[in-house]
Amino acid sequence: MKLAFLGLGVMGYPMAGHLAKAGHQVTVYNRTQAKAAQWVKEYGGQHRARAAEAASGAEIVFTCVGNDDDVRQVVAGKDGAFAGMSRGAILADHTTASAEVARDMAALARDKGLEFLDAPVSGGQAGAVNGKLTIMVGGERASFDKAQPVMAHYGRAVTLMGPAGNGQLTKMVNQICIAGLVQALSEGINFAMRAGLDPALVIEVISKGAAQSWQMENRASTMIQGKFDFGFAIDWMRKDLAICLAEARLNRAALPVTALVDQFYQRVQERGGRRWDTSALIHLLANP
């Protein structure tokens, strides 16, 4: 298929690479053109200086940018993807953004004779590199059915969650759960250390029981070592939690733990940990 991928950050770069390796014709766009040129050198394909140019003629356009404002600019701006797409083409947005912007983009797409899917992902940089992301999709079934086999090149689970916005709402649930899990894991490891236990042995034992989680399997060892210079940055997690808290104010869902953990992340930021992995919550407990 003729595809476009807009946004070549730590997630988008390998995701677009999987599409090229699968044999699709991929044109990329990135605000920093040197990054796009580097991608083309590695994977082939083409790059363009404007999002609209990259999207021109593509059957499906994928976007993976930073936040709501970036989505509006790259998708619906003067030189955005919608300006270059042909009627009937699909735009699938992998950005973690608000449900509001997803619904706005879906409505605008309909007005232009285009199709839109909000399709945020979970699995981090490692999931993107290994092609094992979980993708939560909002939109029309017909659009999903066309895009799902393509997204499967980097998604081990690609699931339609309902109409536009539902992909983003599902990602919010994901982030809410992660926030609570990481805080609990931080408290457990810190408790083990202060109790004189071997924390690695404790994790080895309890990970075989009901306490097991992805965070425990993938982050406990580095948390014990106090290593955080990798993974999903706290700046991005706080962006995501702000979206969750804003949506909760609208639907009147109580998020007391999420709100508290967000404050803890703010304290880590103030310690210089803006780019540390989200597992750095333990730093507050280990260094009160």
Structure description:
The protein is α/β, with parallel strands linked by helices. It has 2 domains: 2-163, NAD(P)-binding Rossmann-like Domain (Rossmann fold, 3-Layer(aba) Sandwich); 169-286, N-(1-d-carboxylethyl)-l-norvaline Dehydrogenase, domain 2 (Orthogonal Bundle). Helix content is 53%, strand content 14%. It has 13 helices and 9 strands. The protein has helices at residues 12-21, 33-43, 51-55, 68-76, 99-111, 124-130, 141-151, 166-194, 199-206, 214-225, 234-251, 256-270, 281-286; strands at 2-6, 25-29, 46-47, 60-63, 90-93, 115-118, 121-122, 133-138, 155-162. The strands form 2 sheets. A 6-stranded parallel β-sheet has the order 3-2-1-4-5-6, sandwiched between helices. Strand 5, helix 5 and strand 6 (115-118) form a beta-alpha-beta unit. The mean pLDDT is 98.
Major beta sheet, strand line-up: 3-2-1-4-5-6
Secondary-structure arrangement, i.e. CATH architecture of the largest domain: 3-Layer(aba) Sandwich
Which secondary-structure class do the elements indicate? alpha/beta
The named CATH superfamily of the largest domain: NAD(P)-binding Rossmann-like Domain
Order of helices and strands: EHEHEHEHEHEEHEHEHHHHHH
Q: How many structural units, i.e. domains?
A: 2
Low-confidence stretches: none
Helix content: 40-55%
CATH class of the largest domain: Alpha Beta
- Beta-strand content: 5-15%
Instruction: Please outline the major beta sheet.
Output: 6 strands, parallel
Overall mean pLDDT: 98
What name is given to the CATH topology of the largest domain? Answer: Rossmann fold
Radius of gyration: 20 Å
Contiguous helical run count: 13
Specify the overall morphology: globular
